[in-house]
Amino acid sequence: MPPAGILSDKFDKEIITFFAISGVLIVQLGYLMVGSVTALPVVMLILFIHGGSVGFFQSPNNALVMSTVETKYLGIAGSVNALGRNLGFVLGTTLATTVLFVAMSGQIGHRVSGYVKSQPEVFLHGMHVAFYVALALVIFAWGLSSYRLLTRKKSA
């Protein structure tokens, strides 16, 4: 049984999503510390925590979204929710790749369309710029999650 689903069935979904997005926020800061001498186990730990945080965010967040919809519209809402998530994946990858190569091109002084083997620091620079953009987006999402948590109606 998936642990995120079990927890979201037993505990407050808004709190679980808040802690999960907080984990993603912390991991984004971890990505900014990755450099050319970062040990592989450290990178693996950051990736593991990121995957876990996203996994713990999705299940309760989906349940929260679906709980706001009338029963007769659950199929449509589920489809729109999945479409939004998939668009986010595609647009996020596109944005990250674009930012990466624009930053690399700016660093090296000409258009770059691939990894520059002779200058790995150019890639690290581009990667960090892309992670700063991702951090800004995660801070925005964290703010929305915080707002949702702080302004929710208390159940009787």
TrEMBL record:
The keyword Transmembrane helix applies. It is a multi-pass membrane protein. Its main location: membrane. This is MFS transporter. Residues 1-156 form the Major facilitator superfamily (MFS) profile domain. The lineage of its organism: Bacteria, Bacillati, Bacillota, Bacilli, Lactobacillales. PROSITE patterns: MFS. It is found in: Cell membrane. The chain crosses the membrane at residues 15-33, 87-109, 129-150. SUPFAM superfamilies: MFS general substrate transporter. GO terms for cellular component: plasma membrane. One of its GO terms (molecular function) is transmembrane transporter activity. Keywords: Membrane, Transmembrane, Transmembrane helix, Transport.
